[in-house]
Batch of 2 targets.
Target 1
Amino acid sequence: MDNARPHRANPTRRLARLLLGLLAIQAFVALAAEGPTVPLDDGPHVFHANGGMRAFWVCNGLVLSEGVPPEGIVTPRCGYPHPLAMPPRTTIDDATPYRDGRIVAVSDIHGQYGLLLRLLRANGIIDAGDGWAAGSTHMVVAGDVMDRGDRVTEALWLLLDLQRQARRAGGDVHFLLGNHETMVLGGDLRYVNPKYAVVARLLGRSVPGLYARDSVLGEWIYARPVLLKLGDTLFLHGGIAPDELELALRIDETNAAYRASLGKPKNEVRADPATARLYDGKQSPIWYRGYFDGRMTPEDVRALTGRLGVARIVVGHTTQKHVSSLHGGRVIAIDGGIKNGESGELLFIEDGKLSRGLLDGSRTSLPEFPAASGYED
Ligand code: ZN
């Protein structure tokens, strides 16, 4: 074990790294020129190597690196502010079985870590020290933690660590993958915050390489599901199209098919008949918007939920002003626009009753979706 220190390299490589770092900072400042200049802080990024783990940060534009001690605790340097217990290496997702308890759901966080903290604290899901405070509650994060915002790393570590804490308390945190996670892993970097291109370059990796299978965050993300059924509610990022009903009838198989294809480039997964339907931009579970754009009537949705044997489908992806109820309560839209960095809402399901948890900690009922209100991407 060694202490935090600048990553050692031979003098020439070190100079090259420093110059690259200065260029990278300049590039970041130039890219961020429209907003206030912020220090380039990010991390930790923890990678498995030679039977151990090594943590990297970019703090004030400079790379720090540190071996992870045998007890597996990473001490904060910059970026994520709390100590982190590294999860054991496993491909089995040890989810807590769900029995009837409270559910809270949120989606489309898009790197808005500060807003996520405020929302979870105000609603008593985490305490003032950001620890899990919701006991046996099951929290569902319905995709799109990545892209757009500049605190994606912090949001991911928070969710990973809350999952560990929740499972100990008899609850769980279920992070379901959205189209943006699949895009980043597959190398479609159109929506990546410019900060992460700089961080990746400084760490000698690509952006998808930050979440490669040798990365602790990557290993966790690659094991996440896309579909989840808790009680009589189906959760997923985009939605289930009637033609793709079968994908939601065989949840385990569908999740396994996503897991096996994550990280492959878009052209490849869309060209392969075995995976095309998982990534289709109009019909697939991570992209579908048919509950919002007029493709489905309330009668169609009633038939769909009936065939799925669920009371409701909870989806993110299609942004609303508020967490809203559509199609007579059979579709609940939970992307309340956190990505804009101004407000956000949680969905609570308790004893079959649905409510919105607001940023001031108050609870209120769900508005019916106004049919002509349209939607944002
Ligand atoms: Zn989405």
Note: The chain has two domains: 11-85, 103-364.
Target 2
Amino acid sequence: MKNSIAVLTGAGVSAESGLGTYRDNGGLWDNYDPMEVASIEGWMRNPELVLNFYNMQRSKLKDVKPNAAHRAIASLQDKYDVSVITQNVDNLHERAGSSKVIHLHGEVTKVRPEHGRYDRDYSESEVFDIGYDQVCLGDKAPNGSQLRPHIVFFGEAVPKIERAIEIVSKADMVLIVGTSLQVYPAASLYRYAGNDTPIFIIDPAELKLSDRRIVHIRENATSGMQKIVEMLEKEENFTTFAPAK
Ligand code: APR
């Protein structure tokens, strides 16, 4: 039975691909008000502004590639049962070769009807992959309603959080890469890891976390993930990484 690794990622894992983060200096939320372009109220108030914001994100994604951190995460699949649980709406984990990816906050390459069905068993009926195309006001779904980004807006539920909690609670190791851990419920996911489950956080910023299970690798995603790969090549027995009692 392969050891399982849950990899929780945020915008920082895609930073070295050239995609901006949200809350760093010059980040997306320095230039846009998330309540205008990424909330359900913003959508109701001005859907065209929201469509244009995600059209821009989508066309940016066309021109960037996965970086060495995405590839290192995918390479762990050779020896471990790896589940990527990302807050990112980009497709860089998949393009790097990760096969089990849960997008907690949706996917920018997909759209769905504004008024449609959403099966509680996490299958996504009526979701359409439009790649890097644009979607405009007046573009309708087969059911006649306006097409909207398949994104979890601020103010909306996070349908995949229970599945994510289940995966983290059973993981033999948790890696957290490039997230400021400020948006819930994603930010609390690591807390569901077992008492003796090693947790590594890769982030160049100072983090104020006092969980005895956490080891902070204060580096960028690419160099930090290289360290994790080398560490696992040297020592496959995860109990050696267990936190001190
Ligand atoms: N490598 C690793 N981490 C990095 C790098 C890098 N090269 N550059 C920046 N970071 C770190 C930052 O220090 C920060 O901790 O990535 C984190 C980015 O934090 P945010 O910009 O807040 O992004 P994220 O945590 O993913 O935001 C969560 O907020 O607005 C919502 O839905 C949006 O999914 C997003 C959620």
Note: The first helix runs from residue 12 to 15.
